[in-house]
Amino acid sequence: MSRLEDLETFVSAVRTGSFAGAARQLGLSPAMVGRRIQALEDRHGARLIERTTRSQRLTVLGESFLAQAEQVLDAAAELDELTRNTPGPLEGLVRLTGPATLGTHRLAAIVAAFCEANPRLTVEMSLSDRRADLITEGFDFAVRVGELQVSSMVARRVGTYRLLCCAAPAYLAGRSPVTHPHDLAGHGCLLNLNMVPRGRWPFTGPDGEMVIAEIKAQLQIDNGEAQRAAALAGAGIVYLPAELVADDISAGRLVRLLPDWETLSMPISLVHPSRRLVSRRVTALMEAIADGLQRAAA
Description:
Layout: H1 2-16, H2 19-26, H3 30-44, E1 49-51, E2 56-58, H4 60-82, E3 92-98, H5 100-117, E4 121-127, H6 134-137, E5 141-145, E6 154-167, H7 169-172, E7 190-192, E8 200-204, E9 210-214, E10 219-221, H8 224-232, E11 238-241, H9 242-251, E12 255-256, E13 262-263, E14 265-272, H10 280-297
Parallel strand pairs: 3-4, 3-5, 7-10
Antiparallel strand pairs: 1-2, 5-14, 6-11, 6-12, 6-14, 8-9, 8-13
Helix pairs in contact: 1-2, 1-3, 1-4, 2-3, 5-10
């Protein structure tokens, strides 16, 4: 077992980019990570990682060794699953990442309920609008919003993410009405720095007319909650996720604009590295998230 632990530590150190990163991921001290990798190198009589006080890099042999080590670990995990006659309770660590707004308003509650039902499991959920590198940063899977780039990752669509155009009554009072997307050009708007393309808001009219509103904004923010707060303060018109502004619209704090026009809808996907085996705990959490998102949309 110690040899498998040494391999796991080596792979984690490479993927996280440091001994400290591997220590955090595996729940070890950096010194223990160093001892395990040193034991691995001593056993095989070769240096696998060139390291200094500031950086590390794989040796040429380390590059080949990494690929083989990952295959061994995958095979060991597969054997463990195959030989377990009666699956026991889920346990261990699952690390996932997802976007901030979706994570705050939908994922957190789903994952919290899953943790309550599986008390021996630990879940680390990192919420950021930055798209993390799953392999390098050691995540088991990601929840992603938007069209996915072509990659070796395995992806599964599990929901739809819709945006709405709205503004506070205080902003709209005394200003020209917005009856067509082109009217937005004459208004103060707030842009999301994470939206690509940033200044183009798509709309589809009741007759099928497709319009891209070209938006220029003085205030541009990379956080949906901050955009919502600015909109509530009367700073301008926003184009934000429905779950972020739905309660405000219902309460009259925000007014939905162009209600007869369809706004942008984007897929929600689960993405995980392409491996032969995905552990039961990871599969179970992905299924819980897929089910939770689909029930919320029903």
